[in-house]
Amino acid sequence: MRTLILLMLFALASCGAQQKTVAPAPPAPSPLYRVQVVNSYPHDTRAFTEGLFYEGGLLYESTGLEGQSFIRKERLETGEVLLQRDLSPAYFGEGIVNWQGRLFQLTWQAQKGFIYNFADFKLTGEFTYRGEGWALTKNDKFIIMSDGTPELRFLNPSDLSEDHRISVTLNGQGLRNVNELEWIKGEIWANVWQTDIIVRIDPATGRVIGRIDASGLLTPADRAGRNVDVLNGIAYDAEQDRIFVTGKNWPKLFEIKLVPAQ
Fold first, then answer.
1. Is 206 inside any structural domain?
2. Which residues lie closer than 8 Å to 199 by C-beta, 6 or more apart?
3. DSSP state of 207
4. Which helix (H) or strand (E) holds 55?
């Protein structure tokens, strides 16, 4: 009887050990969507788009490349430039965001950013950060910054000190080249540099909760005779629930809606 009890205890212990070593189930693949064009608008093919947002009925854009970087305010429907400020040729401009009347701009590798008066683009200050600067967006509490790694930094708008970070993951793996950002309905949307993919990120966990295939927006005629670069630039019109995307040196900016991929 004692031998039988010992054998039963050993069997139970073995089962427990086996349960502890069972690998967790892999994360479910994130849903995939495609885009449907609602409207298209003119876009300056000289604009190497790095940052984009829509506010107060107008489009705001920042561009890159040394000697070609600027920030501008423009009309969506016509592309008319209402205000522009060129960046010093020493800097490669990156993302922008507006916070309570101050426009913040990153630069790529100089580890320096600039602060402007939102109304007239007058320079009012500078700030520094470690690593590269890629893109900016905001929610109601933080300015959110990408740097080309899987990390997104959440910055305090008052002094741009870092509050916390999240690591962006796709199917359990860190996702690099997270580029231009936009806050849309409680999610962070981001271009993935050198791809036609936009990812939808859970800001609490960093997990990619959806992927958007935005390939095919430009026709062969749109590309003919032009040196167009990659998809980059996401803007959201919260008042009318409109989403806009464009790319570096693209001739058009598109209003899109999502449809499930078949």
1. yes
2. 30, 168, 170, 175, 178, 189, 190, 192, 208, 210, 211, 212
3. B
4. strand 49-55
Q: pTM score, two decimals?
A: 0.88
| Helix residue spans in the chain (DSSP H) | 2-20, 220-223
The Cα–Cα gap between 61 and 194 comes to: 19
Q: pLDDT by residue for the chain (262 residues), tens digit each?
A: 444 443 443 343 444 444 444 445 455 667 899 999 999 999 999 999 999 999 999 999 999 999 999 999 999 999 999 999 999 999 999 999 999 999 999 999 999 999 999 999 999 999 999 999 999 999 999 999 999 999 999 999 999 999 999 999 999 999 999 999 999 999 999 999 999 999 999 999 999 999 999 999 999 989 988 889 999 999 999 999 999 999 999 999 999 999 998 7
Query: What are the Cα distances from residue 102, in Å, to 23, 97, 228?
Result: 49, 8, 31
Q: Considering the domain boundaries, does residue 106 fall inside one?
A: yes
Residue 4 exposed, middle or buried by CB count within 10 Å (0-12, 13-18, 19+): exposed
As for how many domains the chain has, the answer is: 1
CATH label of the domain that carries residue 218? 2.120.10.30
What is the extent of the structural domain holding 97? 33-260
Asked whether residue 12 is assigned to any structural domain, the reply reads no
Answer yes or no: is 192 within a domain.
yes
